[in-house]
Amino acid sequence: KNEVEQSPQNLTAQEGEFITINCSYSVGISALHWLQQHPGGGIVSLFMLSSGKKKHGRLIATINIQEKHSSLHITASHPRDSAVYICAGSSSWGGGGADGLTFGKGTHLIIQP
Amino acid sequence: GAVVSQHPSRVICKSGTSVKIECRSLDFQATTMFWYRQFPKQSLMLMATSNEGSKATYEQGVEKDKFLINHASLTLSTLTVTSAHPEDSSFYICSAIPDGTDTQYFGPGTRLTVL
Question: What pLDDT score was predicted for residue A98?
């Protein structure tokens, strides 16, 4: 059974701070997703990665396959970054072998002005 | 970008009634769609994998006779909660993978409240 552990559960920071959210996952997970869920419930897919590092704007996601660990970083954080960030794993990369996701419990991030 | 819609966004029904939730991929075809649910203050949980033209695959603990899934076209999957009860009250979210790609796009979700 795939498992995903995420930390911290809650994080409050000041605007401008560098944010790190961590995720550990079990053997069997080969692709790691970072998602953002807004208060209304809508979910946006931020990154999907199976190796290395990806960057989009102020967001950076890294993954260490040997340690089965991934991090999501937010640089120059802003109040609009306040949301729940969710780490999720899948057993396949997707496409023809698409898998549903196993989710972490989420990190509730609040960025104060 | 790829857009997934869900309808309705919010539904309140009486116990014992059936509720149908639609998930549509608006600008792409998706052989595979997924249905998730999220109880208050809990993480999302995969309910089932919906495959166009074949039976859905349900996760352990999800009753296939209670949560009927129909994926009749490459752009539409429906989830019907039959004989809904208050414990079925939850946030239901679908996602779809554009054929030939590997990214899941999520719908906005449907909040179901069963009285």
Answer: 57
